[in-house]
Write a structure and sequence with these properties.
- This is LEU7 protein.
- Pfam families: DLEU7.
- The chain is elongated, with a radius of gyration of 32 Å.
- The protein is mainly α.
- α1 packs antiparallel against α4 and α6 runs antiparallel to α7.
- The chain has a domain of about 130 residues.
- Helix content is about 80%, strand content about 0%.
Length: about 220
């Protein structure tokens, strides 16, 4: 009965860790998208006056008469050509804006790929934890009434504590370290459980060991 009580305690800690992991795995709005939009708005606001300035000059020149209007139109017609021949700054500004637009998506793309990798690793951890709790509840728990095992809930407690730390900080290097540590701790839980089942002479534990090995293979495939 001691093994049964220990397994129940371990399942309780693992189930608490699973709830925390599922809450952490919920995607939250990233901080990076507002920056590109802000940069684009800023660059657009700089180009708007240059685009609308000819139209504004034309409207102001209307009260001055037809002759002044033609002279100003001729002057405006010459300015772009002179700018093109003399290497005006407007082409340079467009090149700089283009290079900024090309550089910014690359930064956003790298951040997105990193977030996708972490999200994938988190989803695999959630799936492995969920399967472990399911196997313990449906397969292992009924067998302990007939064939007791020596189990230790310490690793499950540590696993729950690591997941609680992850809930406090959902990004950054500390989060990545905690995610890696949670992965290693869950791996240890499954390996120790397999070793405990291997010691037992009962053939009833063979399906349980097979299910646990499959969970471990999926976890190590990350």
């Amino acid at each position: 009965m001691a093994g049964l009580a220990t397994l129940l305690a371990s399942i309780r800690h693992q189930a608490g860790a699973l709830c925390t992991l599922r809450a952490v795995a919920v995607p939250h709005p990233p901080h990076s998208p507002p920056q590109p939009s802000h940069t684009q708005t800023f660059s657009t606001s700089r180009s708007v006056p240059a685009c609308h300035s000819p139209g504004e000059d034309t409207e102001v020149s209307e009260p001055g008469g037809a002759q002044k209007l033609q002279e100003e139109r001729k002057a405006l017609g010459k300015r772009p050509k002179e700018g093109e021949e003399s290497g005006d700054l407007s082409p340079l500004n467009s090149d700089e804006a283009r290079s900024e637009r090309l550089a910014q998506p690359r930064l956003a793309r790298r951040e997105t790929l990193r977030e996708m990798a972490l999200r994938s690793k988190m989803s695999r951890l959630v799936e492995a934890t969920s399967l472990l709790v399911q196997v313990e509840q449906t397969l292992l728990l009924p067998l302990l009434h007939q064939h007791p095992l020596s189990l230790h809930p310490k690793d499950s407690i540590e696993f729950r504590n690591i997941c609680s730390r992850m809930a406090l900080q959902r990004e950054g290097q500390q989060f990545e370290r905690d995610l890696h540590e949670a992965h290693q701790r869950l791996k240890t839980i499954i390996e120790k459980l397999i070793c405990s089942l291997a010691v037992s002479p009962s053939d009833s534990y063979i399906p349980v060991r097979s299910a646990l090995r499959q969970i471990l293979r999926d976890l190590l495939a990350m």
